[in-house]
Specification:
Blueprint (H helix, E strand, L loop, with lengths): L9 H26 L5 H12 L2 H11 L3 H26 L1 H21 L10 H21 L11 H8 L6 H4 L1 H4 L19 H4 L8 H11 L13 H29 L1 H8 L52 E6 L6 E4 H5 L4 E8 L10 E10 H7 L13 E6 L4 E5 H4 L6 E6 L2 E2 L9 E3 L13 E7 L22 E6 L9 E10 L5 E8 L5 E2 L1 E2 L9 E9 L2 E11 L21 E7 L1
Parallel strand pairs: 1-10
Antiparallel strand pairs: 1-2, 3-4, 4-7, 5-6, 5-10, 7-8, 7-9, 11-12, 12-16, 13-14, 13-17, 15-16, 17-18
Helix pairs in contact: 1-4, 1-6, 1-12, 2-4, 2-5, 4-5, 4-6, 5-6, 6-11, 6-12
Bound molecules: the ligand Nc1nc2c(c(=O)[nH]1)N[C@H]1C(S)=C(S)[C@@H](COP(=O)(O)O)O[C@H]1N2 and molybdenum atom (MO).
């Protein structure tokens, strides 16, 4: 009964599953392109996964994949889906309905994830997953139909038939539905097709009801008389190739459509960004001192360009907000006069330009998640004061400012810090242009001295004054500290780890930061030798990092170079190693080199 020649190879079942999965995803993405790019199943499930990832795993992912962590996550999701699709395809060889139902189940998962995202705009977010899964399920059903050997007539004791009949999922239904559907069709009755190969199946029933080509396949498996096996009659090869090919082409088309739709979806936002004209700041940044940028090859540029600026966020699809429609609401405890501001409202205020170095709490000792930019924006403290907000030290009831973004991120900063006179900004511009979308267009927060996760909300849309006791924002709920001032760090940029410089003069150089305290000193140690003071580049402000260099007379052999900084309060950077969780890594950065 189960001779190989009769049954389609498992491989083709797997292929059907993968094709069905591909169709489901591309159709879903096409629908998402029309509905909302963020509502696509991969993005929605990926977002849910990010939110549920334990801090340690996330930290590991950031450490190992860096800014590619999101790409890796999505590839991971696709790989898992491909495995399930493959399994469902094989399952469908026997249990067509179960296989198809399995595809639908994934649609349900995607729909639940999409509608439960914090930025979900409602039930329409379920559409991409539902429509995609339906397309995938129909396709799998059709493909499996073509791969199923024409089953023996009902009543025979063929093992496959009886098994499918006992299937709880009702797969057997296709068997019983057979007779009325295809009264005639056996391949042998077809005209002119080579019999025995089975590819005449579709034509075989042409006299019956003139049903659509897509429907014929369903009949095939059912109409096979028992003697079919004797003639080696099997699955519908030609039908399979046709359906599979058409599906692959259609899926690729849907994929392309989805792409172009989601690209054009942000068109208004892109136009609004292009139309932003940032006026000259009423309070310009002081010129960067000439000596702030050392002429040492390999040291990080003093100003990080927007394209080189690190990016850390949870957004799988970068939010594209139309600045003309953007609003910021300020409300909450102690807000005497709540306001809702537009982008133009902000542009009408005095603009403040400042150089501020941003750092991520996930930055390892020596890591790359730090960058220095020239920001332009409005003073957040002034805005808050106009709303009647007082810091706790002046009797205000709120000690935490919770910023909320359009993608549902929440970031909590101490009201005291925001209002203590430092240049806490609602930033509109970065290095002379409107914020790039990746960095928070149209408006983000920047607060000198605080790690990004407790200060630098991108795509901000809401500010609520509350207390640390009554509300834990996103990262705090995931194990990170409520308060996190940036720790003093020195980083060696050159030589690179495991470099092989020659003996003699080697310039050791890097950057050091202790935002809002300022860097007072950087020292370098070779192996276990004494600490030697490095030359500090000119300071821009105490909110920016500072370059340093140290000329080293390198001697042959392996050496460990270590650096440490001292901030303006006199505190020496601690040697004590700490992980990034919960409030930032600590320890000294060292680099091992071999001098030839
Ligand atoms: N909306 C939103 N804002 C966010 C984040 C985020 O995930 N979503 N990440 C924060 C973190 S952890 C950091 S370090 C900074 C990074 O800003 P950048 O990507 O512009 O460098 O943004 C902060 N603002
Ligand atoms: Mo961060």
């Amino acid at each position: 009964m189960t001779e190989n020649e009769k049954k389609a190879p498992l491989l083709l079942g797997a292929l059907s599953g993968v094709l069905a999965g591909f169709a489901a995803l591309t159709v879903a993405e096409a629908v998402a392109g029309g509905v909302r790019p963020q509502a696509g199943p991969v993005v929605a499930v990926g977002g849910a996964a990010i939110d549920r990832t334990p801090a340690t795993v996330k930290d590991w992912a950031i450490r190992n994949f860096g800014s590619d962590d999101k790409l890796v996550l999505q590839l991971g999701i696709l790989a898992v889906l491909a495995l399930f699709a493959l399994a469902l395809g094989i399952l469908a060889l026997r249990f067509r309905r179960t296989g198809a139902a399995g595809v639908l189940l994934f649609g349900v998962v995607g729909a639940i994830a999409a509608t439960n995202r914090p930025d979900s705009t409602g039930v329409t977010d379920a559409l991409p997953s539902v429509v995609g899964a339906a397309a995938g399920a129909v396709l799998l059903y059709a493909l499996a139909g073509r791969l199923t050997p024409r089953a023996p007539a009902p009543g025979t004791s063929a093992p496959d038939a009886s098994e499918s009949r006992t299937s709880p999922s009702g797969t057997s239904e296709s068997d019983t539905s057979a007779p009325d559907r295809s009264p005639s069709g056996t391949p042998e009755s077809g005209k002119g097709r080579e019999p025995g190969e089975g590819d005449g199946a579709a034509e075989g029933k042409e006299p019956a009801e003139g049903s659509a080509p897509g429907k014929d396949g369903e009949d095939v498996q059912d109409s096979e008389p028992a003697e079919g096996k004797a003639s080696g009659e099997g699955w519908d090869r030609r039908g399979f190739v046709i359906v599979a090919g058409a599906a692959a082409v259609a899926s690729a088309g849907a994929g392309l459509l989805g792409r172009s739709l989601s690209a054009s979806g942000g068109r208004d936002a892109v136009a609004s960004r292009r139309n932003v004209l940032l006026p000259a700041p009423g309070s310009p940044a002081r010129a960067v001192p000439r000596g702030a940028q050392l002429r040492v090859p390999g040291v990080s540029p003093f100003v990080t360009s927007n394209s080189d600026f690190y990016r850390v966020d949870t957004a799988l699809v970068v939010p594209r907000v139309d600045a003309t429609e953007w609003r910021l609401r300020i409300h909450g405890a102690g807000v005497v006069r709540p306001v809702t501001l537009s982008f133009d409202d902000l542009l009408r205020r005095e603009l403040v330009e400042r150089d501020i170095t941003l750092t991520c709490v996930s930055n390892e000792v020596g890591g790359p998640y730090v960058g220095n930019a020239r920001w332009i924006g409005v003073r957040l403290a002034d805005l808050l004061a106009e709303c009647g907000v007082r810091p706790p030290s002046k009797g205000g009831p709120a000690d935490q400012l919770v910023a909320r973004s359009v993608d549902g991120m929440t970031i909590g900063s101490p009201v005291e810090d925001v209002m203590d006179g430092r240049d806490a900004l609602l930033a509109l511009g970065m290095n002379g242009e409107p914020l790039p979308f990746e960095h928070g267009f149209p408006v983000r927060m920047v607060v000198p001295g605080l790690y990004g996760y407790v200060s630098a909300c991108k795509w901000i849309k809401d500010i609520e004054l509350t207390t640390f006791d009554s509300y834990d924002p996103y990262w705090v709920r995931r194990g990170w500290a409520r308060r996190a001032p940036i720790k003093t760090q020195a980083r060696i940029d050159t030589p690179r780890p495991f470099a092989r410089p020659g003996t003699g003069a080697v310039m050791v150089a890097g950057v050091a930061w202790a935002q809002h305290r300022g860097i007072d000193k950087v020292e370098v140690r070779v192996d276990d030798g004494p600490w030697q003071e490095a030359r500090l580049a000119a300071e821009d402000t105490r909110d920016t990092w500072r370059q340093w260099s140290f000329p080293w007379q390198a001697t042959k052999g392996g050496h460990t170079l270590t650096a440490r900084a001292t901030d303006r309060t006199g505190a020496v950077q601690t040697e004590k190693r700490a992980r990034t969780i919960p409030d930032g890594a600590s320890g000294w950065h060292s680099v091992v080199v071999t001098v030839d």
